[in-house]
Write a structure and sequence with these properties.
Length: about 190
């Protein structure tokens, strides 16, 4: 294995061991409550984080279906290209998610903003609005959390300085959360 590959995997492994498990458990609880109460889960992000938002939405909506429980009402704000480009072109890119939230958001909904840097202006604007309108807000972030960590009710920060590893671990967290939701819905807990 090359030195670069070995170093990347070694750093990734070390970062996994430092993930904030208490905060991840709290996200699982927030998602379980949203499901029980029929609240929407709205996800957003840019670039690789947009792909993670779409993936998270898909897994919540499909992979957690359990007889006797309501399905998740999950929606990724990164998936309607026409609406996204209309907001960006006709107003400003900073309004990309804010504009969609105007139409969709209800008090009590759960909004998950995904941003490696924690400083994406359109994510910050959307999360400010979500909080002001009474949503529960979660940031899936990297580095030191950026400005986003101050705008959310729950900040889950991947403690890394490498964007690629941050994005890797955002997806690991997503898969961990969905697996936990599915297992807990079946009555399998390890607590």
């Amino acid at each position: 294995m090359s030195t670069i590959s070995s170093r990347y995997l070694s750093e990734l492994s070390a970062t996994i061991s430092r993930l904030p498990l208490a905060e991840i458990d709290r996200l699982i609880e927030l998602l379980e409550a949203a499901r029980r109460e029929g609240r929407q889960v709205l996800l957003l992000g840019n670039g690789g984080s947009a792909a993670t938002a779409s993936h998270f939405c898909c897994d919540l909506a499909k992979n957690t279906i359990t007889p006797g429980l309501p399905p998740f009402r999950a929606l990724s704000l990164t998936d309607n290209t026409a609406l996204m480009t209309a907001w960006a072109n006709d107003t400003a890119y900073d309004n990309l998610f804010w504009g969609q939230l105007q139409c969709l958001l209800r008090p009590g909904d759960l909004v998950i903003g995904i941003s490696g840097s924690g400083n994406s202006p359109n994510v910050l604007r959307a999360m400010e609005m979500a909080r002001k309108e009474g949503a529960t807000t979660v940031g899936l972030i990297g580095f030191a959390g950026g400005k986003l960590k101050e705008l959310v009710d729950l900040a889950i920060i991947v403690p890394s300085q490498c964007m690629e590893q941050i994005e890797d671990l955002h997806l690991v967290i997503e898969h961990l959360v969905v697996t936990a939701l599915r297992e807990r819905a079946k009555g399998n807990t390890d607590e």
